[in-house]
Amino acid sequence: MKTLKLCGEIIKKKNGITLIALVVTIVVLIILAVISINAVLGENGLITNAQKAEKEYIHAEVWETMQMEYSSYWADKVANKETSLVSYLQGKKIIAEEQTNGGYKIDTEKLLGSKVALGNGEGEEDVYKLVEVGTSEEKKYQVMYYGKDASENRELGTLGDSTTNSNNKEEDEEKYSISRNRIRRVNKLEIKY
After folding, report:
1. Alpha carbons 85 and 127: distance in angstroms, whole number
2. Which residue, of 50, 86, 111, 128, has the fewest CB within 10 Å?
């Protein structure tokens, strides 16, 4: 305790904080901690949003790679008379040999060249599938993701496969040229992770 002499009076000055100031400081810190924890771990928090973004990125990567494989298939179809998209992808070991529960399981490790967080499940949970839709003349294939629960299931996109023999060499050459140009553009890109 310090004493001060001011105009002949002795004033005693106490150093330190009061109990009320300490309690107010602790309450403010608790409120800030709760807000911070909610911002990081809450329903729309940073971690939840990062996990959603990772899933969307993997879905996009699978879809774009399947589109590139489809373009390669078209180039091979015109050049080598490849029979179907399914046999082409099976030959590259990208999809399963046998159809299960309405679709061919896509091997994401073979498709993308590395293991990813999604698409590694068994049966109908956490798998990507190529599902055949459409008529026998105009086959289309949906690329689907089946999550761990039904709310995660989604269609990534549809690939078309015209199996009719048009005997129109110009049309086939045009499709081949488009596919060849897509492959050239992709091969020029060097993606680093």
Report:
1. 19
2. 50
* Residue 152 to residue 101: CA distance in whole angstroms: 18
Read off the DSSP letter of residue 104. Answer: E
Q: In this structure, are strands 9-13 and 2-6 parallel, antiparallel, or unpaired?
A: antiparallel
The upper half-sphere exposure of residue 6, i.e. CA atoms within 13 Å in the direction of its Cβ, equals 6
Closest by CA to 90, choosing from 74, 71, 75, 69, is 69
Strands (E) in 135-182, as ranges, are 138-146, 154-162
C-alpha span between 179 and 69 (Å, rounded)? 10
How far, in Å, CA of 85 to CA of 95, rounded? 10
Summarised one tens digit per residue, pLDDT across range 118-167 is 877 777 788 899 998 877 677 889 999 988 888 888 999 998 854 444 44
Question: pLDDT digit string (tens) for 92-121?
Answer: 999 988 877 788 999 988 888 888 878 777
Residue 24 to residue 104: CA distance in whole angstroms: 63
Cα separation, 76 vs 64, in Å, equals 18
